[in-house]
Each structure stands twice: as structure tokens, then as C-alpha cells.
Design goal:
Layout: H1 3-29, H2 40-67, H3 71-82, H4 93-108, H5 113-186, H6 193-222, H7 224-261, H8 285-292, H9 300-312, E1 316-321, E2 340-344, E3 353-358, E4 361-366, E5 370-372
Antiparallel strand pairs: 1-2, 1-5, 2-3, 3-4
Helix pairs in contact: 1-5, 2-5, 2-6, 4-5, 5-6, 5-7
């Protein structure tokens, strides 16, 4: 037999198999043929895999939108990724805003109040932009890539084996159908005995192949639990990256508020005429208090009952410092994060401040930088 004859026979056999499967599938849909049902455990595994694939795709796509809200930029990055080329580096939105502020500040003059403030704000925006870029990079590596690898790798393998299982099941049921027909014919004529024997052998072979493929598919599907465990670790990495990003941004804005708050309350305008509206200090502790109210690191007991009790009494409490603080003048006390100091209230003191003591040093400290200890 030459190669051409072999290929022709193989094509004919494949065509026959395809036709047999198509007939079996159609008769099942019409209710004219019986169907071998998968065991309940395998069906549950298949359902779990489909559910995992569905939600993994949705989470992955929405995370991409969160990290890069610009759809055009996402499409461009996708194209460059498929071409295995590096996308051109561009400023992100905070960096672009920061650059505009810096350019404007230099244009108005660093010696003017507004120009100086724009320079400080611009530098902070660029730092936020750099943190945003780091968040995107970290999240892509530690979170998006593992999810994409599951969709494009593991689940594709599962889909392939599941399709093979479906074909083996159709082959098995087609063989059962032929055996059933052969037995009916055998009852009418003895000459069909050989056909029955052949059909029984075919059923045994297809049953063995179906059972083997079902086992392969089951083993693959049972790996979904390991996939969930892996994705859980990736999710923790994503949350940690977000936590780092938001903590950095919060600290950058705190520093900016302190810098702007060090400006005089009344500024000269850019044309050297007296400003009619004094600029309110944006770093006042009342503003920080409202911003810190939603942060988990600031104890609610300090903000409510503990603080009220301390202000209404003449006693003192120990407090842990949450963030570094540079004293604006000699009446304030500079603080270092995580140090423990003694705090107390004195009559007539602003509600956003306490007196703090560290050894022989004492001075006013902002309450938003403190966590009262029991």
C-alpha cells in the first residue's frame, strides 16, 4: 500500500467517523437515540471549570479597564503585545498634569505664591504618576498574567480534552445504536450473528476509549481547585500592590498639604498687588482629620470616645505616632512614625491638637497623626 492509498483510506475513515457522530448527535437532539450521561462528579467539575473561566475573564477584563481606563491605549498595548514589540513610553495622566503644572509654575515665576504652589503640586502629581505606573506593572505581572495564562493555557487544554470526551461519547453511543439494530436483525435472520459480534466488540473498544478519556478529563478538571488557590495568591499580591499605591499617594498628598500649609495665610498676587482673598491653609488638622476618618490605621475610639475622654479630663495618655511630622514652628513637636509619646489636653487648645511630650521635649501635635493606646 502506497502513501496515497493510505491517506485516501484514512480520509474515508475520518469522514465515516464524522458522519456517524453527526447522525448520533442529531438523533439525540430529536429524541430518537439514547445518550450516555456523564457521572455527577464529572459534571460538577465541568460546571466548576466553566464558572471559573467565565469569572476569570470578567475579572481580568475589568482589572485592565481599572488600570488603563483609556480604551484606545488598551487596544494599542494589545496590538504591540501580539506583535511582540514594546509599546512606546508615554506620560500617564497624573504625570502629564504634573508637567503642565510645573511648566505653568515656571512661567508664572517660582518666586510668586501661585507659581511656587504649582511647582510643588506638579512634582507631587508626577510622583503619583510614577506610583501609578508601578501599580500597573506590578499588577500585570502578579495578577493579570496568571489569569490570562489560565484562560489561554489550562482552560484551552481542558476544552480540547472535553471535546475529545464528547467525540468518544458519540462514538460509544453510535456503537451501542448499531449493536441494538444488529440484535434486532439477528432475531429475524441468523446471518446477522457475525454483525452482532462485530458490534459488541466495537462497543467494548469505544467504551474503553470513553472511560480512558473521561479519566483524563477528570484529572484535568480536578486541577481547577489548584487554580483557585493560585489565583487567591495572585489576588493577595494585587491587593498588596493597591495598598502600597494608595498609601504612597496618601503620603504624597500629606506632604504636599504640609508644604502648602507653610505658606503665609495672605499672599501677594502674581502682579505684586495685595490679594483680596487670603488663602486658607490646606494642611489644617481639621482637613486631615476628615481625610483620615476613613483610614483603618486611625482608630475610631481615638476619634470618638477616647479623644473626648482625654479632652474632658486633666490626665494623660500614651499614643503611637502614625506618620512622620515636621514641626512648623517652635510651639510644635516633630514626630517620627511608630514612636510612642505622652499626650494630654490643656484648656483652650484647638480641638484638632494635643500637647505631646517626649522626654524633656514638648509641643503641640496634630491628633490625626496619633493613635491613642489603651
Amino acid at each position: 500500500m502506497n502513501i496515497m492509498d493510505f491517506n485516501v483510506k484514512k480520509l474515508a475513515a475520518d469522514a465515516g467517523t464524522f458522519l456517524s457522530r453527526a447522525v448520533q448527535f442529531t438523533e439525540e437532539k430529536l429524541g430518537q437515540a439514547e445518550k450516555t450521561e456523564l457521572d455527577a462528579h464529572l459534571e460538577n467539575l465541568l460546571s466548576k471549570a466553566e464558572c471559573t473561566k467565565l469569572w476569570t475573564e470578567k475579572i481580568m477584563k475589568q482589572t485592565e479597564v481599572l488600570l488603563q481606563p483609556n480604551p484606545n491605549a488598551r487596544i494599542e498595548e494589545f496590538v504591540y503585545e501580539k506583535l511582540d514589540r514594546k509599546a512606546p513610553s508615554r506620560m500617564n495622566n497624573p504625570e502629564l498634569l504634573g508637567q503642565y503644572m510645573i511648566d505653568a509654575g515656571n512661567e508664572f515665576g517660582p518666586g510668586t505664591a501661585y507659581g511656587n504652589a504649582l511647582l510643588k503640586c506638579g512634582e507631587t502629581q508626577k510622583r503619583i504618576g510614577a506610583a501609578d505606573r508601578e501599580l500597573i506593572q506590578t499588577s500585570a505581572i502578579n495578577f493579570l498574567t496568571p489569569l490570562r495564562n489560565f484562560i489561554e493555557g489550562d482552560y484551552k487544554t481542558i476544552t480540547k480534552e472535553r471535546k475529545l470526551l464528547q467525540n468518544k461519547r458519540l462514538d460509544l453511543d453510535a456503537a451501542k445504536t448499531r449493536l441494538k439494530k444488529a440484535k434486532v436483525a439477528e432475531a429475524r435472520a441468523a446471518i446477522w450473528a457475525e454483525e452482532v459480534t462485530k458490534s459488541e466488540q466495537e462497543v467494548r473498544i469505544t467504551q474503553s476509549e470513553f472511560d480512558r478519556q473521561a479519566e483524563i478529563t477528570r484529572l484535568l478538571l480536578e486541577g481547577i481547585s489548584s487554580t483557585h488557590a493560585h489565583h487567591l495568591r495572585c489576588l493577595n499580591d494585587f491587593v498588596e500592590a493597591q495598598m502600597t499605591y494608595y498609601a504612597q499617594c496618601y503620603q504624597y498628598m500629606l506632604d504636599l498639604q504640609k508644604q502648602l500649609g507653610s505658606f503665609p495665610s495672605t499672599f501677594l498676587s502674581n502682579n505684586n498687588q495685595s490679594s483680596t482673598t487670603p488663602m486658607q491653609s490646606v494642611s489644617s488638622p481639621s482637613v486631615l482629620a476628615s481625610a483620615s476618618a476613613s483610614l483603618p490605621s486611625v482608630s475610631n475610639s481615638m476619634v470618638t470616645s477616647g479623644l473626648s475622654e482625654l479632652k474632658s479630663s486633666s490626665g494623660s495618655r500614651k499614643a503611637r505616632v502614625l506618620y512622620d511630622y515636621d514641626a512648623a514652628n517652635s510651639s510644635e513637636l516633630s514626630l517620627l512614625a511608630d514612636e510612642v509619646i505622652t499626650v494630654y489636653s490643656i484648656p483652650g487648645m484647638d480641638s484638632d491638637w494635643l500637647m505631646g511630650e517626649r522626654g524633656n521635649q514638648k509641643g503641640k501635635v496634630p491628633i490625626t497623626y496619633l493613635e491613642l493606646l489603651n
